[in-house]
Automatic annotation (TrEMBL):
Signal peptide (residue range): none
SUPFAM superfamilies for this protein: RING/U-box
Domain RING-type: 8-47
Protein name: RING-type domain-containing protein
PROSITE patterns xrefs: ZF_RING_2
Biased composition annotated in UniProt, kind: Polar residues: 62-74
Annotated InterPro entries: DUF1272, Znf_RING, Znf_RING/FYVE/PHD
Transmembrane intervals: none
Pfam families cross-referenced by the UniProt entry: DUF1272 (PF06906)
Region feature Disordered, mapped onto this chain: 58-77
Length: 102
């Protein structure tokens, strides 16, 4: 089950569970759409993979035990250990290779 991390790992923008601008890679590294598009060039700085929109977990259980109330989002904030220059250099080295070919 996805953690639904609460923030962008690069700029620390809040990304609540209902955020439609949250993007994740296959390891659930979490970044806001602005950082993914303008800084990372759709390259995860942790694994080199691409990003997709993070799904929104329903706030209301439409089926038994399937909602934020039953599986709450994480409150642990995660921050990248890399500087903005390091993020940009890494993404620039891979941005011209499609995610499925990296």
């Amino acid at each position: 089950m996805l953690e639904l991390r609460p923030n962008c790992e690069a700029c620390d923008k809040d990304l609540p569970p209902s955020a439609t601008e949250a993007c994740i890679c296959s390891y659930e590294c979490t970044f806001c759409r602005s950082c993914v598009e303008n800084v990372l060039n759709n390259v995860c700085p942790n694994c080199g993979g691409g990003f997709t929109s993070r799904p929104v977990r329903p706030a209301t259980a439409h089926r038994q035990n399937t909602s934020l109330q039953h599986q709450p989002a994480s409150t642990k904030r995660v921050h990248t250990p890399y500087t903005l220059a390091e993020l940009k250099a890494f993404s620039d080295s891979l941005k011209d290779i499609a995610p499925q070919a990296r």
